[in-house]
Amino acid sequence: VALFNYSLVQSYIGTAVGSYFSKECGGVVKVGSMHVNPFRRMVLYDVELITPDNDTVANAEKISCTFKGFPFGDHSLNLDKVLIKNTYYHLHVFDGGINLDYLIDGIARMFPSDGKPREKHPFTVRVNRLHLSNVHYKQDLKEPDSYDPNAPGVHIPHMEYMGIKARFKDVRVVNGDVWC
């Protein structure tokens, strides 16, 4: 266990994890290094997510996850606390779904279902407490047919927020939808 505390080992594990997720999910998943306490916590450093179409979804300096018990449930991932720090996240919605679908679908394939059809029992991520620290969020949603670029008001399909600091409780992600 002490071997996991060496930075060289953490970098190697991060590279191996990134390669594994890239292969299983498609696209590119890079992890600079990671620290793991198998019974309590996992911290990923320098994370980059790129879709198979070469669209950068996220760049994160640090993602820290703690869990109370075994985090993998019935076709779900259950976390106690998640910290997302110094991160750029770009949500892009298009006719086929969201740009993060490739990763969500890839992770869902890794966790066997209980035999129920996916539509009735989708892969779910549950987080008791989510803390965002200095997050840059950008969204490009599908243009509504009735959109008039000259109309006054806020242009909801294209928004960008910087320096977000927030805390959320009881977050669920189901089929790309976020509830809290």
Could you describe the 3D structure shown?
With 180 residues, this protein is an alpha+beta fold. Helix content is 16%, strand content 51%. The chain contains two helices and nine strands; from the N terminus they run αββββββαβββ. Strands 1, 2, 3, 4, 5, 6, 7, 8 and 9 form a nine-stranded mixed beta sheet that branches. A hairpin with a 2-residue loop joins β8 (158-174) and β9. The radius of gyration is 17 Å and the shape is globular. The termini are far apart. The mean pLDDT is 81.
Could you list some keywords that capture this structure?
180 residues, alpha+beta, 2 helices, 9 strands
Short summary of the structure?
This protein has 2 helices and 9 strands; from the N terminus they run αββββββαβββ. The chain has 180 residues and is of the alpha+beta class.
Give the topology:
Blueprint: H1 7-25, E1 28-37, E2 41-50, E3 56-66, E4 72-73, E5 76-94, E6 97-98, H2 101-110, E7 124-140, E8 158-174, E9 177-179
Parallel strand pairs: 5-7
Antiparallel strand pairs: 1-2, 2-3, 3-5, 4-5, 5-6, 7-8, 8-9
Say what oligomer this is: single chain
Q: What is the percentage of strand-forming residues?
A: over 45%
For the sheet with most strands, the description reads: 9 strands, mixed
The mean pLDDT is 81
Order of helices and strands: HEEEEEEHEEE
Q: Which structural category fits the helices and strands?
A: alpha+beta
- What's the overall geometry? globular
Catalogue the unreliable spans.
none
| Rg from alpha-carbon coordinates | 17 Å
Percent helix range:
10-25%
Q: With helices defined by DSSP (H or I, 4 residues minimum), what is the helix count?
A: 2
Please give the number of β-strands.
9
How far is it from the N-terminal to the C-terminal residue, by CA? 36 Å
